[in-house]
Amino acid sequence: MNSEDVRKKHQDYLFPAVKNFYNEPIAVSKAKGARVKDMEGNSYLDFFGGILTVSVGHANEDVNREVIAQINNLTHVSSLYPTLPVVEFAEKLVNLAPGKLDKCFFTASGTEADETAVMMAQLYTENNELIALRHGYSGRSLLAQSLTAHASWRALPTQVSAIKHALSPYCYRCPLKLTYPECGVACAEDVEELIQTTTTGQIAGILVEPIQGVGGFITPPPEYFKIVAEIIRKYGGVFISDEVQTGFGRTGKMWGIEQYDVEPDMITVAKGIANGFPLAAVVTTSDIANALTKNTISTFGGNPVSCAAAKATINVIQRDKLDKNATEMGNILRNGLEQLQEKHPQVIGDVRGMGLMQAIELVVDETKKDRTPNPSAADHLMEETKARGLLIGRGGLYGNAIRISPPLNITKSEVEEAIGILNDSFAAME
To answer: What's the pLDDT score for residue 158?
Structure first.
């Protein structure tokens, strides 16, 4: 079977809504480290990492060794029985968590983790209304789509009326038409008026991404979350940090919210947790965990194989100081992107992000202050980079943000290679 056969079967048997990148999608067959190969053996440098999931590189030997050992020992029994991989990883995750978080609940996806966190906030506070952010993304379920404020990812109208959406801290496209820092972070202050005017005045909490992933790596000002957290707690709510994309060293710190010096009441984690194996979790305090008194279960949450993979993944991150590498390589990547912006000031309107979570936003003509989103330029760039052997991501409400997120153990030479390909690709677009 070749790539064309795989593409044809994908069209025949999967939902049409399951979209692929590129005019002619790549049928990936093998991967190692930061590189993937298609069915014909063509190699590509992977700078999207399975949507920020392949934390320590494809087919990491340390992770694979633990996975194979666990498969040969115990594959699955459900959460009805305690197992060694589950408790060992739970202990590791709790010890790694920020602040006073000391209890965790495992699920199989970030969507489930966000749903669980919302439920726990409602149970603990005995309030129902919850704040989320515009441009945010929380998943595919009815509740998750109600939390999501990103039209292209919402298949249905808002199903949960208790969710209110605050202004996004999107400085490049400030919803208040202000300029940071003269704005005084007015978008954060507006959260209080949102609570006062659209809720009962007593809320369950807020769920926020430290950097909005699907939103195009929107990166809030450094003061933003401190202001928001104070407001949320003033009105009886808890602060939930959605670390599905920002967790496990991605931003240069173990948790994205640590970049803002805020202690959360809960975190949700997924994606980079197990290097590609399906696993997610909510981590919170004992007081909040104790608010759930009914029976609960997650059939695939805490699967022994996924937990073994997660423990091995975190061990590699800690052993190799990959949070530090994310900072160092992220600085090189960011410098390269800013140099590209200097070369192409018309089309590259913004460069943003932290660590190995960087984005460029493409517009019609930044030199003329025309910030009209330019998704066609994003299409063009992705095809040019693909042709030269580089895979990147995209996102943003307008589909014009290029998302770059290689594995955390990416090397300087690989970052420089990627920057070189981006440079050649932009040149080809002129």
So the answer is: 85
Q: Which CATH class is domain 3-56+321-429?
A: alpha beta
**Is residue 159 pLDDT above 90, yes or no?**
no
SS3 state of residue 17: coil
Spans of all domains in the chain: 3-56+321-429, 63-319
Per DSSP, 173 falls in state: G
What is the DSSP-derived secondary structure letter of residue 255? S
DSSP secondary structure string for all residues of 47-100: SSHHHHT-TT-BT-HHHHHHHHHHHTT-----TTS--HHHHHHHHHHHHHSSTT
Query: Cα–Cα distance between 148 and 159 in angstroms, integer?
Result: 11
Assign domain 63-319 to its CATH architecture. Answer: 3-Layer(aba) Sandwich (3.40)
Cα angle 409, 410, 415 (rounded to 5 degrees) comes to 160
Dump pLDDT digits (tens) for 251-309: 999 999 999 999 999 999 999 999 999 999 999 999 999 999 999 999 999 999 999 99
pTM equals 0.97
